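Hey team,

Sharing the GntR family transcriptional regulator run so nobody has to redo it. Sequence (310 residues) first:
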Amino acid sequence: MKQDANQVLYQKKGVTISKLAMDLLSKDVGDRIAPISYYQEEFQVSRGTMQNAFNYLKDMGAVTLAHHGHQGTYIEALDYIKLQESCLQREIMGIMPLPYSQTYEGFATAIYEQFKRLKFNMAYARGAVGRIQMVESGTYQFAVVSQYAAEHAISCGREIECLMNFGAGSFLSKHILLLRDKSAEGIMDGMKVAYDEDSLDQSKITQNLTKNKKVRLVNLRTQQTISALLDGTIDAGVWNYDDMIENHRLDDLKIVFLAENEYNNLFSTAVMVIRKGNDYLAELLRKNISVEMTLKILGEVREGIRQPYF
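Structure output:
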């Protein structure tokens, strides 16, 4: 009786098939592949198990190989969808901030565009803390966070690593301080100030701004900052300047731009993080995601010459 593909994947040899499929996802037609002995050592399996894994992928049409004698074996054809179907995790899953600004819309559009030949989906969630935890747990394969959030998490021992850095201004143009009292110049004693412990960026900037000041920190989701200011729940809060410009809210509240000692480019720089040591995923992402292409598409969405989709 012919075995179901799902049954094959979850047997002992299925792990080898999954690893091999993941490796081949990072290859192109015309690439020379390593000999069986390399994969045998890499995956710590017998030669027979390795040969069976190759045969399985060839039989299902996921890969076609051409042998050129002493020159080695080359990839003649690849079906990326079938390769994904042969992995235990059959869809690439990423997670990034909620796309409430054109920058985030552009970033999501860029990732979807570059992954269009593969099965891919993006989730959206507030708070770098949660996004990093979900990558570390394996729920998502990569996350987009600020460089500050990534470096802070790594310094705290989180099992992640930065795979790509998209440069200053790629996460957002800048953070700003919003004040309910338009006559105020900054945070003063007695103020109620928004504080989101799930946002490593907002919480750190807020700590910088309130240092040595007698204020009351109000636990609040970052996205609630403007409404909380307008209804008097808080007097001050850190927010995204892009949203203020795009939604024409410049006259509603007092905007204070932050000094260099209160802010740096680590907060405005987007990075992609993955679970530490996932070399096959790292190679796959590097193959499909280009920093230059991401910034080009992001810029086109910002300028209105490309329609966002995500």
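Residues 64 and 220 are 55 Å apart (CA to CA).

Ping me if you want the raw files.
A.
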